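Reagents: none. Just compute today. DUF488 domain-containing protein.
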Amino acid sequence: MKNKLYTLGYTTTTGTVELEEIALAKSAILLDIRWRPTSAYPGWRSYYLEAYLKEHYQWCGQLGNKNYKKGGAIEIVNPTEGYPLLLNLLKQKNVILLCGCANLDTCHRLVVAKFVAPLVGEAEHLVGNRKIKTLVNG
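Predicted 3D structure written out:
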């Protein structure tokens, strides 16, 4: 697969303008993998992100974490449906897995990236527009 995988916690950015700049700089789609794409802050709700970012945004709740609100181990909502959607997107363009979590080590983005990394070669984890870590082959 020729396209790259990135991950990003949007709370590490200054807002939707920076999200758009990152998506454009990476020639990527922001794939929102929150189970429920809501937030106490209107600017992070899916309908706002979709209206502002347009073709640079897509929501994929199947790759969300079932246990986000109730705690416990990370459990992907529907990997059987979610991973094929992600891989299909990666065939078309670069993808940034988007979630709200600032801490990658405790976020389900890492679980999703580790699953897909062997198929894409690597995943780069971003804080804002800076690369912080490269995960090679899972």
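Helices lie at 16-25, 46-53, 79-92, 108-120.
Action item: order primers for follow-up constructs.
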